[in-house]
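Thread: Modeling a multi-component assembly for a lab meeting

Hi all, long-time lurker, first post. My supervisor asked me to bring a structural picture of a complex we are working on to next week's group meeting, and I have zero experience with this. I have the sequence lines for every component (618 residues in total). Could someone generate the structure of the whole assembly? Inputs are pasted exactly as I received them:
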Amino acid sequence: MFYEEAVYRPLGDLYLTVEFGDELDLLLNFRVIALDAALKQNAIAGITETIPTNRSLGVVYDPFAISYDSAVASIREIERQTSAISELTSRLFTIPIWYNDPWSRECAEAHGFKNNVEYMAEINDCSVETVIQRHAGTQWWVSAVGFQPATYQALPLDPSFKLSAPKYPRPRKTTPDRIVCQAGKITSFYPVVSPGGYQLLGRTPIDLYDPQQRNPVFKDGPVLPCVGDRHLYQPIDESTYWRIRAECDAGTYRYEILEETYRLQGYLDRLAAVRRDVQAGP
Amino acid sequence: MFRVIEGGPQSMIQDVGRPGYLATGVPPSGAADRFALGIGNLLVGNDPGERYLVGRHPGDAGIEVLLLGLKLEVLKETVVAVTGADLTPTLNGAPLAMWRATRVGPGDIILFQRPRAGARAYLTVAGGVDVPPFAGSRATNLRAVIGGVGGRALRKGDLLGTFPPRRHFQTLEGRRLKPELVPTYGQRWAVRVVLGPQDDLFQADSIATFLNYDWSLSNTSDRMGCRFIGPKLVFKPRPDYLVDQAGSDPSNIVDDTIPVGGIQVPSGLEPIVLHVDGPSLGGYAKIATVISADLRHVGQMRPGEIANFVHVSVDDAVAALRSLESTIVESSIVAG
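Re: Modeling a multi-component assembly
Sure thing. I ran the full set together rather than chain by chain. Output:
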C-alpha cells in the first residue's frame, strides 16, 4: 500500500521515520531517495543523520536542538516541495559470484537444509542453471543498506523477473562472509559472519566491506554499497574466484564500477509493458 | 599503561560511540551505560563526551567489563576509577572503592572478581585509553571488527597505553561522585518506552501484556540485542500482499529503520531490545523503542532480571534525557 500522505512516527526520542508505504516497491524507494536528497540539500538544524530504507526514511535528530513536532513540520514542508525524481546518478557495480559455492552448500547442510540453489530451482520449477541465469540476468537496485555494515537489500530492475524464495523457517545461527543471498525477490548480502534467514546463492570473492580499507575503492569509508546503486552479478568459476580473491587480499583488484545517470522512466516504461502483458494474458 | 593478564569473557574499549554511519549499516556502538562511563571519565579528569548518537564527539575511551574476569597489571603510575556494575573490583586483593578516583602504581593488580549488581563496569584512566580511533571513535564493534584493540575484546598480553593526564594526579585522587547520584542496581528495572512504530500491528491486549508483564532477560543477550522471556504477543491479521512481500510470519514487515533501543518481536515471541551494536535495518515489527536515557538500564541487566516496560511520551523521554545528561557534569563530582 502506498500511503496517500507520508506517515511520520517517532522512534523513541532520537529518531523519527517518514513512511511512504508498507510494501516493497521501487516507486516507494524512489520517493525515499528523493526526500533524502532534498533533506541533504536543505539541511535542517538539529537533524544529524538520515537512513534511507525500502519504503521509509529514518531521521536522527538532536531533541535538544529541535523538537519532534518542529522536526516533523520542517521535514513535511520540504517533503511537500519535493517533486518525484526522474533521474539520478547511480553507480553500476559488476559483482562476480561463484554461484552454488561449497561454503553456501556446507552452511545450509550444517543447519539441516538442502542446497539452497537446488531448493530454489525446485520451488521455481526450473533448473539450477536457470536460477543462476535469472539471478545474473537482471540489474539490481540497492533499496536499503543496514543490518550489518554493508549488508544491502536490492530489488530486480527487470519487472518481469521470475525467481523467488521464502526466508528460512528458522534463522541460521551463522553464515560465512561475502555470501550473496535471496528471499522473496530481494537479493541481500552477508559482508561479515552473521546470523540470517535468506537463501544462500553464492559467494563473491570481492569485499564490499573492508574495515582495513586496503583497496583504493574504500578511500571514503569501509562500506561500498549505497542506496541508489545498481548491481549486476556475474557468474564465475572456481579458478576465477581464487584469482580475484588473491587480488582483493593484495589490494590490487580493480572494481568494475560505472557511474551513470539512471533514468527512472525506462523502468516505468518496462513496468507498464509488463503490466499490459499480464492484463492481455497469454 | 596496563598489561592485560586476563581479558575475562568480554572486556573492551568503549567511548560514547560512533554516530554518522547508520546509513551504511555501521552501528554507533559505544558504552552500554553512558552515565557510568561518563562519570568514570569525569572522576579521572577526562572528557565525558557529548550525548549518545547526537553528540559531536565521543569523549575519552575506557574499558567496559562484562560481568567478571578482567585482570590488569598497572605498569605506570596513574589514577583510575571504576563505575557502573559492582563486579567486586579489587586492587591487590583488597576492595577497590567504586565511583571514586584511586591512585595506582606499577605492579598493582586490578581484578573484577564476580558480579554482585549490574552487568557492565567501566574502568577509566586519567588521560583515556590510547587506541587508534576509527571513523572518529575508539568504540569497539566486535562484529564489524573496528575500534578498540584491533576490533576485538581484550585478551591476555594486550598492552594498553594512555594519553597524558589532563590534571595532576594529586588533584584527581579521591574525587568521588556525589553520594546521592550513585545509582543502585537492583534486579527489577523500569525501562521507559515510546510505543511504535508498529504497535498498531499488535492486538490491543498484547500491547497491554507488553506493558504489564515482568519480562525476564534471556541469557542469549548481548550488545546487539537483549531478548526478554514472557508470553507470546499476538498480531492483527494482515493484507495478503505483505505475506508475499515481507514474509510468511505475521511479525514480518518490509524492512525499515531499527533505532537503537527498538524492540522487535519476531513471531510474537521474546521481544528483543536492539542495543548499541544492533542492526539499523530489519524486517520484524517493532512494538516500541526504549528511550535513550534508559538504554543504560537494559545495558546493566543480567540474565534472569526483570524489566517492566513503561509507556511514556516523546516529551517525557526528552525530559528524562535532559535530566540524565545534566548529571554527567563536573559539578556532580566532589573533591577528595
